[in-house]
Amino acid sequence: MSPGRGGAGGGPSPMETDTAKTTTKRRNKDVSDTEVTSCKQKMTYIQSRRGLFRDHNPIYEDLTKKEYPVLLQSASNDLTHKVPMDILKVNGILKEITGVQYVKAAGNFFVKVYFGCAKDANAFLLNKPVLQANTWKATIPYDSIECQGIIRAPVDLSEETLLEDLKASCKILGVKRFTKKQDNGQYKPLPTVLVTFMASSRPDHVIYDHIWMPVQEYIRPLLQCFKCYKFGHGSGACKSTQVCSICSAGHFYKECTTPSDFKCSNCSGPHSAVSYTCPVKAEKNAQIKNKINGKFSYATAAAVAVTPNSSNNLNSKISKSPAKTPHGRAVIAEIINSDIVMNAITKTIIELMKRKDVKNTSSSTSGPLAISSQTIKELLVTSFTT
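The structure assignment produced for this chain is given below.
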């Protein structure tokens, strides 16, 4: 047995083993560095008003939707210049596209194209010849595949660092750190960070390294036009005349000759049209919060219940809130905890028992109580409104 040969097995010598290990470590290190560098080169970001986003071209993956909208705009659009979309021209071109159900204008600069299945919508999203020939940009609307949430992250972490290293149960598309303007004109970063997820509902938490960060609901700011000062649209899509935010007359606010005489154009109150004290604005903000939290007044529900086709409206609200989602759980919890609902159910049960007793008394042969679901609905409506 030769010690230099490592014994009867003929294995490598200790020196050869050390050399091999060193070479392997060096090779693994070189490969690892190459892979990291390659990944960093491939990973590109897009900075926009929505924050820092991954450069991606999402397609529909959920095959259970009833319809699949695609947002069309001019590929020449930028932050300072937008090209209007001619819906008649767009409709004429889309006649040759498979799967289009209908087309809908979304302001002056956007058109929504609705498809009946994900396959046709994805084929259109990836149809570069048609898009390039018409100078179009096709994307999926944000609210169709994305949701957002708020986390609290140390201000030392940049947006790029968070986007690279945050982990969640679903894909993270973008982040935006909120800032506050100081008296000196500089912007101070805040711990609040908006995270955009590629999912229908936000996850409960994200993880940075080993730090657990809970994700809270994000309530989007109310959109107000700075031309007519109505709500729900921006000035770029406004077709109304200019209104003064101070006195509500037909001029720009910088041209106002009575800057101390406030009159809101929405409620005629003694404040500017952009004031947070405006009751109309407060009501709009409350509607946004209630919609996100899945809450609605059961007094309102009772009033709606007596209107035609109201059952369809209520069914659509509840069917959009499955019990497995936070939104659905909030709706169900509020139903269960509502005294109005429970009292109405109790009254309905008592009335059904009375009708059963009457039937058994008047009939010589007692059989099963034949009461339709429509009868129960009518009794519930009566119980709500009495």
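Interim note for the steering committee: Residues 14-42 form the longest helix (29 residues). The two ends are 103 Å apart (CA to CA).
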